[in-house]
Amino acid sequence: MSRPVIGITPYLEPVDRDVWRAQLSVTLPATYAEKVIEAGGIPLVVPPLPDADEEWAARVLGRVDGLILSGGADVEAARYGAQPHPAAQEARPDRDVSELLLAQVGRELDVPTLGICRGMQVMAVAAGGTLNQHLPDDVGHERHSPSPGEWSSHRVLVGQGTPLAALLGAEVTCPTYHHQGVASCPGYDVVARAEDGVVEAIHDPSARWRLGVQWHPEQGDDLRLFEALVAACS
């Protein structure tokens, strides 16, 4: 059986490299690619396109077997009809337009998809959903992202009888780093929550395999989500 090709959306950020400073770069933490390789897939980075349209998204998705929408900066609030919160990060319009199109067209084409952190939020917004822009305002603590630049972890409670429970069991402890979350996600089932009620996973019951998680599985040792994605693409 040939190894499926998994497209991964990267970050677009200024990077310091040797003598070069703040060079705008297409970049991705290596752990994303490593997990896809370990799970039996072939990672392929899909850079954002400023003038992306549905034809671009369809052509990209026609050349991969599956898709990972990666983490990163906040989705711009205007994309879901809101004013930005004071704690919101600077928008990445190239990423927003490209990834929202990949999420929308990927859903129409039934491309197996895993959304991670921002990626899950992109899936929700592409479906017409909304986000909680600053979780500490809603849950009263900062345990989802307590220290800048440092991973935290917490328990995630998985809904009984859900496809995610069949894959991961009733409870997992997950690497986490986010200050926003999904408030609504039309067409998706919420299949896991943190103990404080924050949405931690969404699932499309009409899709072959389409799942978003709020945590960062690429930062842990558990390959099951990546293995399930690769299996769905094979």
TrEMBL record:
PANTHER family: GLUTAMINE AMIDOTRANSFERASE PB2B2.05-RELATED. This is Putative glutamine amidotransferase. GO terms for biological process: polyamine catabolic process. The lineage of its organism: Bacteria, Bacillati, Actinomycetota, Actinomycetes, Micrococcales. Keywords: Glutamine amidotransferase, Transferase. It comes from the Bacteria. One of its GO terms (molecular function) is gamma-glutamyl-gamma-aminobutyrate hydrolase activity. InterPro entries: Class_I_gatase-like, Peptidase_C26, PuuD-like. SUPFAM superfamilies: Class I glutamine amidotransferase-like (SSF52317). Transmembrane segments: none annotated. Pfam families: Peptidase_C26. It comes from Allobranchiibius huperziae. PROSITE patterns: GATASE_TYPE_1. GO terms for cellular component: cytosol.
